[in-house]
Amino acid sequence: MNVGRGDDDDVRGIRRTLEREEKCAEKVHGALKIAEGALVALPSALFMATDTGTVHRILVVDDEPDITALVAYHLAKEGYRVTTAGTGADALRSAREERPDLVVLDLMLPGHSGFEVLTELRRRDETRDVGVLLLTARKDEPDRIKGFTLGADDYLAKPFSPKELVLRVGAILRRLAAPPVAAGGRMVAGPITLDRTAHRVSVDGNDIELTATEFKLLERMIERRDRVQTRAQLLESVWQAQPDIQTRTVDMHVQRLRTKLDTAGAWIETVRAVGYRFREPPAPPRRRR
User: Fold this and answer.
1) Distance between CA atoms of 148 and 86, rounded to whole angstroms?
2) pLDDT at 44 over 50
């Protein structure tokens, strides 16, 4: 049997294709190992560590193995240590045993729903302060509001960008690692300083005159920096009012507070159809020369 040059090219092409497929299979196998609940640890140079050298632990909860593998793979690639769970009961058990720094939580789970898991996480002393990112196909406004009301730190709808997911996880962990409350009752957030003891607020060192209600509103928002506050939550915590009354009260006070804070008022972000969030405003785009 004679093999010509064209046949050699075909053989080489098939060999290259098989090599690519083999490498792809290795990657998929690694991702599926993550989905099976294995603890993932990449080389130390890739760990996302704090100043004390601590590696953040993430619990990924989803009943779809493909989604679990995808999320866990991208988080592990950034240096996080990842464990997984496929049911609400497994999620609560893992949270109790593993003590993660953050939970990526789906809402539609077998057994206990994601809302029930979130409620239980916030109820328990050992998991009350854990970060929670809701990752779900349920993107309707009532679901988002319920999630934030129950204490979620952020909400990301499927389909999602893995890069955005990683960035959101990092933002939550930075907030948890750097609480704004300092010794002596002083809270500092960007240019804003709130002194609880002296009942004073200043922006860039200049005192700002606030009413008692405005002071309390700003205090509550800084306390939960980077977390969405629904109007109902603010009504209950600031005004001790029932959450079912008219919400224009909150909007009016936020508007006045922003005006008094001047440029620092940009730290109070409106979350459409939900409420407000206190966080550092994005940097303005650079002008092209």
Assistant:
1) 22
2) no
Give the CATH number for residue 130. Answer: 3.40.50.2300
C-alpha radius of gyration, the chain, whole number: 24
- Token readout for 59 is 């619990």
Instruction: Name 165's Cβ contacts closer than 8 Å, sequence gap at least 6.
Output: 71, 74, 75, 104, 133, 135, 156
Distance CA 156, CA 109 (A): 16
The domain that contains 198 carries what CATH number?
1.10.10.10
- Confidence tier at 64 by pLDDT (50, 70, 90): very high
Q: Which SS3 state, helix, strand or coil, does residue 81 take?
A: strand
Residue 11, class by beta-carbon neighbours within 10 Å (0-12 exposed, 13-18 middle, 19+ buried)?
Answer: exposed
Nearest-angstrom CA–CA distance, 138 and 145:
12
∠91-274-126 over CA atoms, to 5°? Answer: 30
Give residue 32's identity as a one-letter amino acid code.
L
Q: How many CB atoms are closer than 10 A to CB 203?
A: 18
